Amino acid sequence: MQESAELRDVTALAVPRVGRVEKTGNPTLPYRLLDADGTEVAAVSEFLRDMLANDDSPTSLRSYAYELLAWFRFLRAVEVAWDRAGRAEARDFALWLKTVKKPPRSRRPDTPPPGSINPVTGKRYIGENYAPRTRRHARAVIRSFYEYHRDMHGRPLLNPFPNAKRAEDEHLNAHHNPMHAFRHPTRRAPYQPKEPRRAPRGIPDQAFNELFAALPSHRDRALVAFYISAGPRASELLGVTRDRVSPGDQTIGVIRKGSQALQWIPASSDAFVWLRLYQQQIRPQALDGPEEPLWWTLRARSDR
User: Less packed terminus of the chain by CB within 10 Å, N or C?
Assistant: First the structure.
């Protein structure tokens, strides 16, 4: 444990991209984590199975598995077993995740530089480093992983990512010296990135009118109108079927990403007008079954 307390130069640390998250097709364990040798990490599988028993969605299990994959890759690079990791490894992982650049991805030549700001919407494009929200999520996942094993098996004794010391904060100024300034309580847990203040998403009315006028089809106009007026996620809106549209009530039914529950949300009357125009346009092509997808490609169907 003496070696783990030494200061490491995380900027020069080579973390190999070994191991992977595998989709199993097993309903009791939809995803599992494999190490560099292709062996299933039993501790992670047990944790994910417990999450599933607590009614977490398979998409949540996938997200947690990828965060733990990064943690196990880091521990492999520093040669520390997962159940022997301590505060030093948590500190170095937080520094590494803050400074390391994300894996490169293919980009179009006309794509704005990472981290630049859209001049129309004022929204910042995704940067080269991991965002604070991503690092906060990684910390929360790893902490919950260790808390599960501490509660279930009693080991490891300490969580590498401890919680904020709120019990001490309650009596922080109990014997305050009026000659000194008040001490501020701990607002964040150790190695937890600050919560960024997000600017409200918006687009000028003139820019939106130009965007809407440039849309090439009634389908695209209906999609944008539902997206703006109802506010669902893009994946939730694209997954709507024909039986989850109620023009009389002016609502659409979406399957929520987290809870996987059906929720009916109101939309504007203009959205249903564009939807009707779109349905009239594709009626010779699309199937009319109630469980068929609502959104279809506008390309001609092939019999092959």
Answer: C
